[in-house]
Design brief:
The complex is a heterodimer. Chain A contains six helices and seven strands; from the N terminus they run βααβαβαββββαα. By secondary structure, chain A is α/β, with parallel strands linked by helices. Chain A has a single domain, classed as Aconitase, domain 4 (Alpha-Beta Barrel), CATH 3.20.19.10. In chain A, strands 4-3-2-1-5-6-7 form a seven-stranded mixed beta sheet, with helices on one face. In chain A, strand 5 and strand 6 form a beta hairpin. In chain A, helix 3 packs across helix 4. The longest helix of chain A is centred in the last third of the chain and has 13 residues. Chain B is of the alpha/beta class. Chain B has two domains: about 270 residues, Aconitase, domain 3 (2-Layer Sandwich), CATH 3.30.499.10; about 140 residues, Aconitase, domain 3. In chain B, about 30% of the residues lie in helices and about 15% in strands. In chain B, helix 2 crosses helix 5. The radius of gyration of chain B is 21 Å and the shape is globular. Chain B starts with a helix and ends in an 11-residue tail after the last helix. The chains are: A alpha/beta, B alpha/beta. Chains A and B meet through helix 4 and helix 6 of A and helix 2, helix 3, helix 5 and strand 7 of B.
C-alpha cells in the first residue's frame, strides 16, 4: 500500500530535498543517505528503513524548484519513494523521468500523512478518505524515455542503432 | 504563423522550416557546459555505453565546456578527487573549453562562457546548472538540464524529445532611478509572476529599457528568469550584443542575431515601467517573496554577500565600491565579496575597487560560487541573517537551515553593509 509518509507545502526546493553541502557526493548509490538531510527526523526514518519502499511524498506546487542537481532525484529514487505533487518544476520532473523516479502530477490532490493512496493511470484514489483526484499526464515528449525505462537505456538504444 | 526567438532557434537547430509551442523536437546542441557535476555526467556517460561494444566518445569535444566553480579551491578530499577525475576525462576526450581552478582564466561558468565568446546569438546551449538561462542574454536559447540528460547530449550531440515552450513577452520601458537596476527589475518580475509563473515557458525581454541595458545587466535578468520557473530567458541580440561579443569577448567571426517575427505568438504579454521602481528585496525563504526595500529596512544583517553568477560583474563591483569608498563596514556585520571571474577580479583590482572593499573591511574571496550555495565558505550561524546579491534564498541555501537569506542588488548590499541593517541606498540619492 502507498502510504503518505510526508506531506510538504509549495515550492519545495532542491536545497531542502538534497542540501548543497552534500553535492560533492554524486554517485546515485551514495546519495540516499542525505535525502531531506536538514529535516533530521524524516531523514533518520528514511535511513533507518522505517519508511517502506513505495511510500509517498506529497508535494504542493512547484516541487523540486531551484538547482538542476540530479542528486535531488537519485536520493529519492534510492529509497524507492513515489512523489505525488500538485505540480513539479521543469528540471526536477525531467530528471525524475530520466532516472525512473515515480512522479505523479495531481493538481487537486488532497491527503494527510498516514493516508493510503492508490495510483491508477488516470486518477489517484485516497483510500482513507474515499476521494478521487485526476492525474495530469506527464509531458508527452518524454513518453518514449519512460517507455524505454529511463534516459540511459533510451540513449543506449539510439547509439547502438546509429552504429549499425 | 510567426515565430518567437525560441521557436526560430529550435526550428533551425532541429532542421525544420518552422516549429510552434508544443511541438516535440530534437535540437542539435551548439554548446554543452558542466561544472564539478561533470563527475556525475561522466559516470552516467559510461553507463550509457555499458553492455555495448562502442567506445565512449563525446560527439564533439570542441562544443563541450567544463568549468570548475562550485567548490574552488576544493573544500574536501572528495571534491578534489572528483575534480581530478574530471580533469583526466577532459584530457582524454580532448574537451575544448575547459577552465580549471586558475586566477587568470578561471571563474564562474556563467561568466566564463560569455566573456570568452563561447555563446553566440541563435545557439542552443545546455548546461548542468539551472542558471544556464543566463546565456539567453546573448540571444541564445539556453537551458538547464540534469547530469543524465547531459550524458545523453555528450553521446548524441542533440537533446532528445524537447517540447517547444510557449513564450511570455515582457516589454520594459522607463529609465531606472539612481541605485535601481536590472536586479530590481528581475526581482519585481519574479514577484509578479511567482516562483512557478513561467514554469515550462520562455521569457522574451523587449522594450527600450532592455535595448539600453548592457549585456552585464541582461545576464542578470536572464540568469534569474529560472527563479520564475522559466526554461529560458532571452534578450533578442542587437547592437549591444555585437559590441559585447566583439569588444569584450574578442569574437571575430559572423554574428547572426535572431529576432522574433512581427506576428510571433506569445502566451502572454507583460508591460513594466521601471520609472518609479524602488530597490527590491526578496525575503526568506522564497525568491518570489519580493518587497520594496523600504518595507524591510532596519532588518539586522550578520553577513553581506556581493558576487555570484548574478551580480559579480565589474559594473556590480563598481556600484558597491562607489558606495563604500572612504567608508567602513559596520562592526555589527561582515561582508564577503567574490568576483565572477579572474578577469573581472583583475579589472576590479586595476580600477581600485578591490582596495576600496578591503579598506572598508570586506573580505575579498576568489572567484567561484562561494557562499551562494552553502558548500564550503561563508556559512551562516544559527539564527543569523544574510543579505546577498546572489539568486536564491531557499531554506538552508547558505548552508544552515536555521538561518535566513534576503536577496538584493549590489547597491542595497553595499549601503546596508555600512549600517549593518537593510538600508535603502536611495536615501539621500537624487
Amino acid at each position: 500500500m502507498a502510504t503518505v509518509a510526508l506531506k510538504l507545502g509549495d515550492d519545495i526546493s532542491t536545497d531542502v530535498i538534497y542540501p548543497g553541502r552534500y553535492m560533492a557526493t554524486v554517485l546515485p548509490a551514495e546519495t540516499p543517505q542525505y535525502a531531506f538531510a536538514d529535516m533530521t527526523d524524516f531523514n533518520s526514518k528514511l535511513t533507518s528503513k522505517q519508511i517502506p519502499p513505495g511510500s509517498v511524498i506529497l508535494g504542493g506546487q512547484n516541487f523540486g524548484c531551484g538547482s538542476s542537481r540530479e542528486q535531488a532525484v537519485s536520493t529519492l529514487k534510492g529509497h524507492e519513494l513515489v512523489i505525488a505533487a500538485k505540480g513539479f518544476a521543469r528540471i526536477f520532473l525531467q530528471n525524475g523521468i530520466n532516472l525512473g523516479l515515480r512522479t505523479v502530477v495531481c493538481p487537486t490532490i488532497d491527503a494527510s500523512e498516514g493516508d493510503d493512496l492508490e495510483f491508477n493511470e488516470e486518477e489517484v484514489v485516497n483510500k482513507t478518505t474515499g476521494k478521487r483526484f485526476v492525474v495530469e499526464p506527464l509531458p508527452k515528449a518524454r513518453q518514449a524515455i519512460i517507455d524505454a525505462g529511463g534516459l540511459i537505456a533510451y540513449t543506449r538504444k539510439l547509439i547502438v542503432a546509429k552504429s549499425t | 504563423m510567426g515565430m518567437t526567438v525560441a521557436e526560430k532557434i529550435l526550428a533551425r537547430a532541429s532542421g525544420l522550416p518552422s516549429v510552434k509551442a508544443g511541438d516535440v523536437v530534437e535540437p542539435r546542441v551548439d554548446l554543452a557546459m558542466s561544472h564539478e557535476n561533470a563527475a556525475l555526467v561522466i559516470n552516467q556517460f559510461f553507463e550509457v555505453y555499458q553492455g555495448t561494444n562502442l567506445q565512449p566518445r563525446i560527439w564533439n569535444p570542441l562544443k563541450v565546456s567544463v568549468i570548475f566553480d562550485h567548490r574552488v579551491p576544493a573544500e574536501s578530499p572528495k571534491t578534489a578527487s572528483n575534480q581530478k577525475k574530471v580533469r583526466e576525462f577532459v584530457a582524454a576526450q580532448g574537451v575544448g573549453k575547459f577552465h580549471d581552478i586558475r586566477g587568470d582564466v578561471g571563474g564562474i561558468c556563467h561568466q566564463i562562457l560569455p566573456e570568452n565568446g563561447y555563446v553566440r546569438p541563435g545557439f542552443v546551449v545546455v548546461g548542468t546548472d539551472s542558471h544556464t538561462t543566463s546565456h539567453g542574454a546573448l540571444g541564445a536559447f539556453a537551458f538547464g538540464i540534469g547530469a543524465t540528460e547531459m550524458a545523453s547530449v555528450w553521446a548524441l550531440g542533440t537533446v532528445l524529445n524537447v517540447e517547444v515552450p510557449a513564450t511570455i513577452k515582457v516589454n520594459v520601458k522607463g529609465k531606472f532611478k539612481k541605485f535601481v537596476g536590472p536586479k530590481d527589475l528581475i526581482l519585481h518580475l519574479i514577484g509578479r509572476l511567482t516562483a512557478q509563473g513561467a514554469n515550462f515557458k520562455v521569457i522574451e525581454f523587449h522594450g527600450p529599457t532592455i535595448r539600453l541595458m548592457s549585456t552585464s545587466g541582461r545576464l542578470v535578468i536572464c540568469n534569474m528568469s529560472v527563479e520564475a520557473g522559466a526554461t529560458a530567458g532571452i534578450v533578442p541580440a542587437d547592437k549591444e550584443t555585437a559590441r559585447y561579443l566583439r569588444k569584450e569577448a574578442g569574437v571575430k567571426g559572423a554574428i547572426a542575431p535572431v529576432a522574433p517575427d512581427k506576428d510571433a505568438v506569445y502566451e502572454r504579454i507583460i508591460q513594466i515601467d521601471v520609472s518609479n521602481l524602488e530597490p527590491q528585496v526578496a525575503c526568506p525563504h522564497t525568491v518570489d517573496n519580493v518587497k520594496s526595500v523600504a518595507s524591510v529596512k532596519g532588518t539586522k544583517v550578520h553577513q553581506i554577500v556581493i558576487g555570484s553568477c548574478t551580480n559579480g560583474r565589474l559594473d556590480d563591483l563598481a556600484i558597491a565600491a562607489g558606495i563604500l569608498k572612504g567608508r567602513k563596514i559596520s562592526q555589527e556585520t561582515r561582508m564577503l565579496v567574490f568576483p565572477a571571474s579572474g578577469r573581472i577580479y583583475a579589472q576590479a583590482l586595476a580600477k581600485g575597487y578591490i582596495g576600496t572593499f578591503m579598506k572598508a573591511g570586506a573580505v575579498v574571496m576568489n572567484p567561484g560560487c562561494g557562499p551562494c550555495l552553502g558548500i564550503h565558505e561563508g556559512a551562516l550561524g544559527d539564527g543569523e541573517t544574510a543579505l546577498s546579491t546572489t539568486n536564491r534564498n531557499f531554506k538552508g541555501r547558505m548552508g544552515n537551515p536555521n538561518s535566513q537569506v534576503f536577496l538584493c542588488s549590489p547597491a542595497v548590499a553595499a549601503a546596508s553593509a555600512v549600517k549593518g541593517v537593510i538600508t535603502n541606498p536611495r536615501k539621500g540619492a537624487k
